[in-house]
Amino acid sequence: LGGLLGADKVRACHNYANDRPFDTGRTPMQYTTNTLEKHWMPFTGNRDFKADPRAAFLQSTVGVSWLIESAVACGVRLFAYFSTAHVYGPVTGRVSEKAEANPLSHYAIAHYAAEQIIKRSSGESHLKALVLRPNTVFGIPASIDTFDRWSLIPFSFPMEAARAHTITLRSSGEQRKNFIAADDLAAYAAEFLQSDNRFEGY
After folding, report:
1. Residue 74, Cα to own-chain centre: how many angstroms?
2. In order along the chain (202 residues), what is the average pLDDT of each group of 10 residues?
3. How far is 145 from 124, CA to CA, in rounded Å?
């Protein structure tokens, strides 16, 4: 971030966010930094809402709102947000981006609320935003040592195959899922960030 904005502007952004009132015991910049880290990671969600629904919902809504407000104040023009296909409701049958949003779980509702916050900001400011709603993402974790989502299929299958030379199906195995590589997902975001003049506001 410092390389893009310059150290002085980063400090100004930090001060801007920390000067704002917040009622969770943390400063906005602490809150939005956590939010930024979580929403650039492809796998976070349902268990966070099970562990602490209030904190998770606040982080995904109020935290994102602070993040967007701070970004706009600091002159950020482009913002990419990784949401989830769960905003369409139960992921069954064929689902396309033309389908109406129907978020049902706390996880999906929070992501959809974050999307709307971003959409509102892009309409009220110079910000252009890209929202991606992937289903199941696979790829090599950025840090094997800290990654803790090995129970997910894109990771449990290859790990078990490598360690035990077997793959255990914990369901009928007849489901069809739309997998996307993390590299491909990143490429969509990179295309947007590098070619912003070809995109509308949201």
Report:
1. 21
2. 42 46 42 39 56 80 86 86 91 83 91 92 86 89 82 87 90 81 90 74 68
3. 41
Tokens 């892009």, residue located = 122
Interatomic CA distance for residues 198 and 12, integer angstroms? 30
Cα 63 to Cα 82: distance, rounded to the nearest angstrom: 15
Closest by alpha carbon to 64, among 92, 85, 34, 90? 34
Residue 94 to residue 166: CA distance in whole angstroms:
30
Q: Which tokens go with 192?
A: 């947007």
Q: pTM for the full model?
A: 0.72
SS3 content of the chain, % helix, strand, coil (to 5): 50, 10, 40
How do beta strands 136-138 and 78-82 pair?
unpaired
b/e map 99-119, b = 16+ CB within 10 Å: eeeebebbbbbbbbbbbebbe
Query: Where do we find the tokens 């706390």?
Result: 106
Q: Pairing mode, if any, of strands 78-82 and 128-132?
A: parallel
Structure tokens at 85: 């296909």
